[in-house]
Protein 1
Amino acid sequence: MDIHSVFIAVFILLRCNPGESFISNSLRVIQEVADGTVGAVAKRVVDQVRKVVDVSATASQNVNDSSLLGKIREGVYDVKNGIISGVDEVVGTPVTLDQLTFYLVTAENVENPTIIDFFKPDDLAQTNGRIIFLIHGWMSYTNSVFYTDLSKIFTSKYPDSHIVLLDWDQPASDYYPFSAFDTESVGEYVGILINRLLANYGVSLANILLIGHSLGAHISGFASKTFTKITGKKLPRIIALDPAGPLFVFRPNSKRLNKDDADVVMVMHTDAGVFGYPTVIGTIDFFPNNGANQPGCWKKLKAINLATYSQPVTCDHSRAWKYFIEAVEITGSFPSRKCDSYENFENGNCDRNEIVTMGDLDTVATGSFFLKTNSKPPFSIPLP
């Protein structure tokens, strides 16, 4: 079992006792695991969790909105008596530039990305095409399929595009609350780099596109907030792939991705109420299979085999970038229909409504869009 799996175990196994914080409960649960099957790996996690020294607020709130309560599911969150509790918010140390690396991928160097000079991004600016920032989530890295496949597809379909791979692997590999805290400072660096491209190199604002998965979606939001603070302008488009839910559900708009961060905030929900944000958060929100319980992701949170559960548990959350890769590669795939609810979509009550495809990088449509998918690739299926 890898360290990623152990971190996920904390979320899944936690059922905090009254008066027992997430941190103390984490230590108890992981120590129990450490004494069993995962040994040294879990002991390293215990040591890391013990570094937590400043807990500023608990991510819990009384829920008066029944629609929100209905979309939060047991597992990552604990729902009791109308109160949603999750992990604890922490105050960490902002990320420094030396913890980040920006890589440039072009049609000429797909297999061998080059490092971008943050202060003199000359190579990055040498294009009239789109500049697309890809931003990974928690426990991910630059060699992930999300990065490699999308880079190949974008540079193949749009040869004049430049792809920026943000490597924030070090902060993203921390204890989740610290990684969540770090999204703001990471986003600030992205926003500063974007402003530098426009101010110093004359790059067109219309060519900037941010695509983030999970915590990377919130980094995109903070990048845009920073850019707006500097320039008074909005970025044209953010694509948020299953924005992270834990901790962010309870934050104000200023501390998370929201629909005002860019002219278009295009969101895909695949694990709503568990690892993903549970409700509408963008200008246009796609809900494949009602935004949760993706076909092919069968295992339930309460039936976890510690030796094998990492993939099944994160399957729904990862489907967002898997769907998006297919949507970009196959033009016209993932047709989605505008509707006010999944029930009305299934019942055919919205059959005359607007249709948008999930891979449309230029859509200005707004509202909630629903669709169904297959359980394995190709995931896209036609609308009925």
Note: The mean pLDDT is 81.
Protein 2
Amino acid sequence: MNAPRRRSSRRSWRRTSQRKRSSSTTSTIPDQEERESAPPGFRSSHQGAAAPISPRKESPMPASRKLPFVLLVVALVGAGGVLWYAIQDLTGEARIAHAAPNSPSNGQPALHDLIDKGDLGAIKAALAAGADVDQVLDDPTSSRRGMTPLMLACWNGKPDAVQALLDAKANVATRARDGATALFWAAGWGNPGIVKSLLDAGAPVDARRDDGLTPLMIACARGEVANVEALLAAGADANARNKWGQSALQLAVQSGEASKIHLLLAKGVNVNATADDGQTAIGYACSQGSADVLDVLIAAKGDVNVADRDGMTPLMRAADAGDERKVASLLKAGANVKAVDQQGRDAAAWAKLRDDDASKSVLRLLAEHESKK
């Protein structure tokens, strides 16, 4: 009885052992598909020695890549939404401009508002829909009252908008409340491209504001050097005077840019012309301009001893400003140290009124100059 039981037990043991080996073989040897899909460095070299495999195949994408993929999808969806809203906003401006091109927007005509925003597409849409290209801003509370869209585009320095308005036949000779045309804003706040576009469209180069200022004077006082050059090339009058008797040269001095002075002198302007207050360009240079500008004027044979209507000479103005370099340039050019104004003050007296370190330097220069005589 015992022997059969042992054989049965032995056979049971063999079956159990075979099942274990079979189970072990199944769990360690990859199938053909896994061997072919595994990276080269991880494929089995022989049966029974295989790369680790994932026990489960729930997704064709590795688990480690699921999160970045989800984040990428979310980012793309978000970017698409932002782009959609941006397009709606841009096209919305164009739709509004097309639907009501002459209606007020933000307290001003729609075309003015679009120019402020710089939306060229909407500007063109408004013009195509019949916007009044010469409509005047008539808000009594606005500092820009009387400006046309063209003037505003020039003031904002937007050449593309200017060209679009010119293509729509904007009037280049329209005058604002103070008599300024679009060329004034282009000369002082625009760039040479805008100035040239207006001149090519027939803008009057020597138009005058009510105070007698011309586009050239504005460009000399505050515009780009290239604007001065463009206006002079177009034949602007370099000797014109404003209501105070000032010329473009005297206004250019106040900008402190010597290159503007050179351009005007090359046109033959009178370096010693006086304004209504009696000052020459050198007088203005001593109180407001730069030392470089003063040197250019002196080199152009400017008179350093012309007194204004109050008797002040350029040397007195330089001493009053406490500018040691200007004082030195004037003394070298022959300025009269002993000249006095209508109140009896000479250059030294004007320097003493400052009572600071700058005045001490000026007084020392004046004293040294006198001691050399």
Note: The first helix runs from residue 2 to 28.
